[in-house]
């Protein structure tokens, strides 16, 4: 392989860079507006609150959680990439259905009149109040990741746009 062709490939001597490049490539298949991966957690289980039963149902979703920023591909492109400038996705290891949420900063929600999102820590779960009113519980295996992911999601909500 020539040096020129090799310059566009991830540095094989830097495993972290190779892993980040691979993760970015995989995520871009699910969200073409991905701009940057902000943080990750290796193992996440997803639960949804069942209002009728007043109990938590475990969704058949377990995998790596990613929080990332999103960007429009062109200045004329408006829509989800403006409404949801951040995203959360759990790449499911159990089946082909991933869990994803668009994350809308509070300034956008207030401007558009859309319901506000909220993230908070309760016991060992990150509670996610989605814009559609659904409540999700995110359980992260690595206890250190819980605070990092929560702080990142709250940071996303606090951004002025």
Describe what this molecule looks like in 3D:
By secondary structure, the protein is α+β, with helices and mostly antiparallel strands. The chain folds into 2 domains: 1-30; 35-158, PH-domain like (Roll), CATH 2.30.29. The chain contains 5 helices and 7 strands. The longest helix is centred in the N-terminal third of the chain and has 16 residues, at 15-30. The radius of gyration is 17 Å and the shape is globular. The N and C termini lie far apart (45 Å). Mean pLDDT is 87; it is low at 1-8 and 74-78.
| CATH superfamily (homologous) name of the largest domain | Pleckstrin-homology domain (PH domain)/Phosphotyrosine-binding domain (PTB)
Q: What is the averaged pLDDT score?
A: 87
Q: Could you say how many structural domains there are in total?
A: 2
- How many beta-strand runs? 7
Radius of gyration computed on alpha carbons: 17 Å
Tell the overall outline. Answer: globular
Largest sheet: 7 strands, antiparallel
Helix content: 25-40%
Task: Record the strand order, biggest sheet.
Answer: 4-3-2-1-7-6-5
Please report which band the strand proportion falls in: under 5%, 5-15%, 15-25%, 25-35%, 35-45% or over 45%.
35-45%
CATH topology call of the largest domain: PH-domain like
Number of distinct helices: 5
Order of helices and strands: HHEEHEEHEEEH
């Amino acid at each position: 392989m020539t040096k020129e062709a090799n310059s566009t490939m991830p540095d094989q001597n830097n495993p972290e860079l190779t892993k980040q490049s691979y993760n970015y490539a995989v995520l871009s298949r699910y969200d073409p507006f991905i701009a940057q991966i902000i943080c990750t957690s290796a193992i996440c289980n997803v639960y949804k609150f069942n209002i009728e039963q007043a109990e938590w149902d475990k969704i058949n979703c377990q995998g790596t959680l990613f929080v990332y920023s999103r960007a429009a591909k062109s200045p004329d492109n408006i829509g989800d990439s403006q409404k949801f400038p951040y995203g959360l996705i759990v790449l499911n290891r159990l089946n082909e259905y991933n869990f994803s949420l668009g994350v809308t900063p509070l300034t956008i929600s207030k401007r558009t009149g859309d319901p506000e999102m909220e993230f908070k820590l309760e016991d060992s779960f990150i509670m996610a109040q989605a814009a559609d009113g659904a409540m999700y519980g995110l359980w992260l295996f690595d206890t250190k990741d819980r605070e990092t992911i929560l702080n990142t999601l709250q940071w996303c909500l606090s951004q002025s746009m």
